[in-house]
Amino acid sequence: MSHAWPAEGLSRIPDWVYTDESIYQREVERIFHGRTWNYVALEAEIENPGDYIRSNVGPTPVVVARAEDGSISVMENRCAHRAADFCRSLAGNAREFVCPYHQWTYDLKGNLIGVPFRRGVAGKGGMPGDFKNAEHGLRTLNVTTHRGVVFASYCQEMESFPDYLGPDILREFEATFDGRKLQVLGHYRHSLPGNWKLYHENLKDPYHATLLHTFLVTFGLLVAGNRSLMLTDASGRHGVMASAKSDAKNLGADTKKEMRAYKEGMTLSDPRLMDFVEEFDSPWSVTMATIWPNLIVQREMNTLGIRQIVPTGPHEFIMKWTMFGFEGDSAEMTRHRLRQGNLMGPAGFLGLEDNEAIKFVQDGMRNVPDGEHLVALDPRTPFGTSDTLISEAAIRGMYRHWRDVMGL
Amino acid sequence: MLDDLKLHYEIERFNTRYAAALDAQRLTEWADMFTDDAFYLVTSRENADRGLPVGLIYCEGRAMIRDRAFALHNTAMFAPRYLRHIIGNLSVERGQEIRATANYAVFQVLFDRPDATVHQLGVYRDVFLRTDQGLKLRERRCVYDNLLVPNALCLPV
Questions:
Q1: Does the CB of B150 have a partner CB in chain A at under 8 Å?
Q2: From the CA of B74, how many Å to the nearest CA of chain A?
Q3: Is ipTM over 0.90?
Q4: Which of A177, A253, B28, B54 is least crowded, fewest Cβ atoms below 10 Å from its Cβ?
C-alpha cells in the first residue's frame, strides 16, 4: 500500500494513518518506543517500598515499582530467561519479583538476583561458568517524575520533562498538579474500537464539544461563545483544550440556532453535578491536556483524572483512567469529585458520547475504506494554537509532528 | 420461615421488574424504583476490592438518578442497541434492614454486529426499604467483574 500524503497537505488525513498495520508497527517503534515520555503511574499508587503496579508503554507491558531506597524503576514485564509475563497482579507489594516458571528472581530495580540450580546438581548441568547475573536483568526504561506523575522512556537521552512539554503546556500541567499530594479515588478501564490517535484528535477538536455534547451545552458548561483556548506546544504534539464556564442564558439567538444541541429550559433535578469549587490558580474551569503520546489530564471543573492510552493495534486501544483528588480534601469535596465524575469515563454523560463517536469514525473507515478526512476549519491558523473553538488547527499541528517522526 | 420465603419472592419479583424496565429502556420507571435518599453505584470489582470509591455511575439520591435517566433520554448520543438483563442467585438477609445480593449479566446487541456480547457481569449489593408503594432500593451497588468496559456503558445496569 502506498503511503503518499494527499497533495492538499495537512487539511487532509488519509485513512491509512488509522487503519494500516505497518503504520501502527512503525508508531510503536518510533513514537511509543521512541523519543517520548510515556505516562506509567502516579506516585500515589506506589507510595511505599515494594509497591508496584502493572502498566504499559505503548502496547508493551511494564512493571512500575518503588525500591527500598525510594527510587522508582520501570521494567519490561518479560522474564530475561523464557520471556514469561511474570507479574500478573494489577498492583501489590513485593520484596522481589519471582518468575513463576523457573523462579528466576529480580530485585525491585529489575536486577537478576537468583537463578535456581545455577551451578547444577551434583556437578552436572547448570549455567555456563561465565554466566553473569548482571548481564541478564530485566530490560529497564528511563524514568522521570514531575509533581507526582511518573513517566518512562525507551530513549535514554531524553530531555527533561519540563523541556519536553514546553513552557505553555507545563504551566497548565502544573495548574492541575499544583503541588498538593494526590489521592487515588479509583480506576476505569475500557476498550475503544478506534485508532489511538483519534482520542488525541477528539481533544484537539474543540469544534465537536459544542455539537456532540448536548449535555454540556444545555447546562452551560461549554457553548460556542465561551471564553476558550485551544493551546498547543511549539512542536504540535501536546495540547490543552481550555474553557471557562459561562451561562447559556446569555447566548445570542444565532449561536443557539447553529447548535442543534441547545435545548431551552432543561434543568437538572440535582444541580450539584455542575457546581464548580474554585481550587486552581487558572482562568479556566475546564482543561483537557493531551500529553504526547499516551496521556490525557482531565480537569473538568473538580473531577480530575488521568487517562492512559494503551494501543493494541490500528483498530483498537485500551484506556486506563485513574481518578484522583488531593490529600486534605474534605469528605464532602471527595463526594463532589465523585458526583461530578458522572460527566466523564465510559459511562459519563460526555465520555460515553466521545467513545461512541470515535467508534463510529473507525467503523466508517473500515466499512468504506481508502478515503481521507477533511480537517480544514480555521484556515487562518495553518496549525497550532487557536483562540476559536471552530478550529482544527491543533489536529493539523499534531500531524505536522507525526509526519516528521514517522518520515511520511 | 414463611416470611423469609415471601420476602425472597418479593425481591425476585422486584428484580424481574427492574430487568424488564432496563431491557425496554424505560429509564423513568427504573429511576422510580429507588427511594429519595438512594445511592446507586456502578463500579469495577477492582475498585470495590481495594475500597476505592469511584463509580462509572455515582448517584447520591433519586434526583441524580432521575437526572441520569433524563439526560440519557434527552441529551445523550449513542448507537441504538438491545440489552437483556439476567438476574439470579438471589440471597436475602433480614436484619435491621433488608440486605440482598444477586448476580447479574447484561447482554448487548449492536445493530452492526450479528451477535449478542456479554456487556457486563457482576453482582448487585442491595439495601431495600419497604414503603407505601412496596419495596424500593435504598442502595444498589453494581460491582462488575469485567476488567474492561467494552467501549461505553450507555445505559444503567
A1: yes
A2: 9
A3: yes
A4: A253
